[in-house]
Design goal:
With 120 residues, this protein is mainly α. The protein has three helices and two strands.
Length: 120
């Protein structure tokens, strides 16, 4: 959305007020100040919206960075498992299937209200 502002910095720097008998023309000064106030209100609103938008983006960025860290940890664990399967050191396809079965049983026990870590 393009907004036509009344003045830029150079416009204000080069602004000349009309003179009359008592000094400067009050109407011209008042109308100029009204336009400057209008521009300042636009900038204040723009600044507030930009600040809120930046805060929202920073929050989303932090969430995504945290999720990325979690995924990197998971990937690292999966790489270790894959390397162990490739090298046949302690993990093989049969072991992975057993781990999956154990995981299913543990989840089922948790749903029933039993903590499988406390079963002896």
């Amino acid at each position: 959305m393009a907004v036509k502002l009344n003045y830029c910095a150079d416009d204000l720097l080069n602004l000349k007020f009309k003179k009359n008998v008592k000094g400067y023309d009050a109407y011209h000064v008042d109308s100029t100040l009204d336009k400057v106030i209008s521009d300042l209100r636009y900038y204040e609103n723009f600044y507030k919206e930009a600040k809120d938008y930046i805060a929202e983006l920073e929050s989303k960025f932090k969430t995504l960075r945290d999720k990325n860290s979690e995924l990197e940890v998971q990937i690292s664990g999966m790489k270790k498992t894959i390397d162990a399967v490739k090298n046949k050191k302690g993990a093989n396809f049969d072991n992975i299937q057993l781990y999956e079965k154990i995981d299913k049983y543990e989840r089922y026990l948790f749903k029933m209200g039993v903590d499988p870590t406390k079963i002896k």
